[in-house]
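Entry type: protein chain
Record version: 2
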Amino acid sequence: MARGPKKHLKRLTAPHHWMLDKLTGRFAPRPSTGPHKLRECLPLVVLLRNRLKYALTVKEVQMILKQRCVLVDGRARTDTTFPTGFMDVISIPKTRENFRLVFDAKGRYVPLPIDEEEAKYKIGKVTQCRLGPGGVPFAVLHDGKTLRYPDPDTKVGDTLKVDLETMRPSGLLKFEIGCQVYCSGGRNRGRIGELKGRDRHPGMFDIVHIQDAKGEQFSTRLGNLMVIGEGGKSKPWISLPKGKGVKLSITEERDRRMEAAAKSK
């Protein structure tokens, strides 16, 4: 009988959004324990080798990380299997590049290039908000960060803007009808839209209704959403990936591919 923590991960059972091929090996890098869950994260080795193409092998990734060249949320990380996740800011000072990890409309992680100003902060969804020892209020974000003395108006489900240099909250977005939301779980992961309604189901999962920029509506669980903007004509607090979170049907994708192929001829 096996004892202790598991240290291996078979390639076929690795999360599909890592997009690893079947035939390169039998195993996949198993993420270390950290701020994001195993099946909801992207290890640094997959990010640097398979996405950004800065390395060809795990050994090369190790050499890059041991030089403390890669910062995650402003801190140098040297673990090749460190789990990065939704809304994390990855900075590479030597190349002056910054990326924010977000989902595309198909639910796959995309390292979205951002500028220096936007790389100074991240946003996090509040998962807990209560009093600690000594009556000190604190809020816990979706990535495990604990922030003491947040805005007194903070509630579970709201979004906090965190300054990565001081690790202090610098802004608050309330979860309310009309706000802009990013779907980070379920079958609609990666879609972005405006919150239109909320169905309360005591003892079960609350269901919310969202309308995207194309006017199409979809529904998901309340826990799958993160607020990214105040709604209306106000801009979201983060840059959005290609497509602005609008999911296309397979016929629309086909038509766009055919148009692009016709233009290239």
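Comment: The helical segments are 44-51, 58-66, 250-264.
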